[in-house]
């Protein structure tokens, strides 16, 4: 991934980054591990983009941490409008240089730029960002149906994002469901994986599959999407866990 990203410096391994999602940090030993890459994996409609947007918005508005959203699927106007409807005013944060949107929608349509390493994200966009979201890598990794080809492509993303020192969330679609599903390369390469699921009865389930260096609650927990975003019920159990698909 050839970029001119400005590093934010080494971070203390034990430090935590607040997620900004009610109930989630209770499952994460206090928050995401600083400077790590976490994969948000889920089926369409599970709220992956909303979760990531809450993460960026909370950091910029409450934690004074600049956030950058790299959009591979959603054009900027649609993203801004959808998040505004949930009470997340990214437009004002952008004016205050606490948020930046990088429109990378064209990259997924250009074969020679299929490797995410060529996403045009430079120092100007990231500046001194502490939080980064790449949403979604699915369209790019689907260009590599062969696992042996896909792994280097995903590794390309992970290595450069790691070099920035930011705490980064990646989103990806869940290609298959069930206990026998095949794990994808991005699940091995990311330092953390959170799985979002839709169940048959309409309930939603969030599970922390892994988070290196953290004592996490790996039990599936219910969550809801409200008018202002996601909320995780960290002390409740999920009933009827058979998947809807």
Describe this structure in words.
With 245 residues, the chain is of the alpha/beta class. The protein has one domain: P-loop containing nucleotide triphosphate hydrolases (Rossmann fold, 3-Layer(aba) Sandwich). Helices cover 24% and strands 23% of the residues. It has helices at residues 48-61, 76-84, 90-95, 123-126, 138-141, 147-164, 185-189; strands at 16-17, 32-33, 37-42, 67-71, 99-103, 131-135, 167-173, 192-198, 204-211, 221-226, 229-232. A hairpin with a 2-residue loop joins strand 10 (221-226) and strand 11 (229-232).
Give me some keywords for this one.
245 residues; 7 helices; globular
Average pLDDT works out at: 83
What is the spatial order of strands in the main beta sheet?
5-4-6-7-3-8-9-10-11
Q: Rg to the nearest angstrom?
A: 17 Å
How much of the sequence lies in strands comes to 15-25%
Care to give the gist of this entry?
By secondary structure, the chain is α/β, with parallel strands linked by helices.
Topology:
Blueprint: E1 16-17, E2 32-33, E3 37-42, H1 48-61, E4 67-71, H2 76-84, H3 90-95, E5 99-103, H4 123-126, E6 131-135, H5 138-141, H6 147-164, E7 167-173, H7 185-189, E8 192-198, E9 204-211, E10 221-226, E11 229-232
Parallel strand pairs: 3-7, 3-8, 4-5, 4-6, 6-7
Antiparallel strand pairs: 1-2, 8-9, 9-10, 10-11
